[in-house]
């Protein structure tokens, strides 16, 4: 059935070709199909040149090898052509009679039984369409829910990663705070030792001043002790300076904590906004209507894709003239029905004259 749906739109589908001659004895092809009579040139059975639909034909007759087609337009001349013999005329008459009867039957009023069958078929088709739409809606809803679930899962994973990073950063900050506290305690201890050394230095200086008359050996010992205390004071002061510099560096790193927390909070708010946008996307029924509106074009798109896929495998050397003409028609945007519309332009008299002049 799918093949027939495609084949019925082809130019040569259902056409019976029989050789005829017009009044000028020009060899031509007469094409008989379900839509009417068409006249073709001998070297081109793909594109008709003149066409007569069945609703323009009133009567058919033949005498020996002469065949006459009487149009419904009384002002037009009869379409007269010659065949090879009586047998060809009989075949043309039988084909024309059968196709014309089917043409009229298809366009006539239906019987009650046929109307009932069509109504039942229409109801069944509507039920199938509704079921298909329901299944499509369920599938779209499921896909949207799955997409929403995946987005939420990704957002949760991102939040977990951000939480782990913040926890790790917080642990680092706590460790640095403890280090800073221990350094402050160490600095306090060193300052106390420094103060004790400074008091000892003052005592030594006072003792030197009081004991100026002491022996040389005692003054030398006191000077050495004073120099040693001064050196210890310098070392303690250097250590204090290093501790202060390290403390300032830790305080600068701790000062960055609020900025990190602010950025982390902004990231979570962005995720919430994106999630709300995803929920808003569910309220768009016009997307479904647009998808259903282009369903009829899917078949043509698939055929075009298949044609493009098969083109590389074709042997251009084996193409016949009819294949070349078909490709030319496709490139010009012509198909079966556009061609029939073009050759049936004008009144019957004009087309009969065109046939006789071929």
TrEMBL record:
Sorted UniProt keywords: Cell membrane, Coiled coil, Membrane
Bilayer topology annotation: Peripheral membrane protein
Locations listed in the record: Cell membrane
A cellular component annotation (GO) from this entry: plasma membrane
Domain FERM: 1-107
GO molecular function terms listed in the Swiss-Prot or TrEMBL record: actin binding
Residue ranges of coiled coil: 114-253
PROSITE patterns in alphabetical order: FERM_3 (PS50057)
Source domain of life: Eukaryota
Chief location bin: membrane
SMART domains: FERM_C
Pfam families referenced in this protein's UniProt entry, alphabetically: ERM_C (PF00769), FERM_C (PF09380)
Protein name: FERM domain-containing protein
């Amino acid at each position: 059935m799918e093949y027939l749906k495609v084949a019925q739109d082809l130019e040569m589908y259902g056409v019976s070709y029989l050789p005829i001659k017009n009044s000028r004895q020009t060899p031509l092809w007469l094409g008989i199909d379900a839509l009417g009579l068409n006249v073709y040139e001998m070297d081109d059975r793909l594109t008709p040149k003149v066409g007569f639909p069945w609703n323009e034909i009133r009567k058919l007759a033949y005498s020996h090898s002469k065949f006459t087609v009487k149009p419904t337009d009384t002002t037009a001349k009869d379409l007269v052509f010659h065949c090879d013999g009586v047998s060809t005329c009989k075949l043309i008459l039988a084909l024309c009679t059968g196709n014309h009867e089917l043409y009229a039957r298809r366009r006539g009023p239906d019987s009650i039984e046929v109307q009932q069958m069509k109504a039942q078929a229409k109801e069944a088709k509507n039920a199938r369409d509704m079921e298909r739409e329901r299944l499509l809606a369920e599938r779209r809803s499921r896909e949207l829910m799955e997409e929403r679930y995946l987005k939420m899962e990704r957002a949760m994973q991102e939040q977990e990663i951000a939480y782990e990073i913040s926890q790790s950063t917080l642990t680092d900050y706590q460790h640095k705070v403890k280090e800073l506290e221990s350094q402050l305690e160490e600095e306090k201890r060193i300052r106390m030792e420094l103060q004790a050394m400074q008091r000892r230095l003052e005592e030594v200086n006072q003792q030197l001043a009081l004991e100026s008359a002491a022996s040389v050996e005692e003054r030398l010992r006191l000077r050495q002790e004073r120099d040693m205390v001064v050196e210890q004071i310098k070392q303690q002061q250097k250590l204090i300076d290093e501790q202060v510099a390290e403390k300032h560096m830790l305080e600068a790193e701790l000062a960055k904590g609020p900025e990190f927390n602010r950025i982390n909070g902004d990231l979570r708010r962005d995720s919430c906004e994106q999630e709300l946008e995803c929920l808003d996307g569910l309220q768009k029924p016009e997307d479904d209507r647009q998808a259903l509106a282009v369903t009829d074009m899917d078949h043509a798109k698939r055929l075009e894709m298949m044609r493009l896929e098969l083109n590389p495998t074709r042997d251009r050397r084996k193409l016949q003239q009819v294949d070349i003409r078909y490709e030319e028609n496709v490139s010009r945007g012509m198909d079966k029905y556009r061609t029939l519309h073009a050759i049936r332009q004008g009144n019957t008299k004009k087309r009969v004259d065109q046939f006789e002049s071929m």
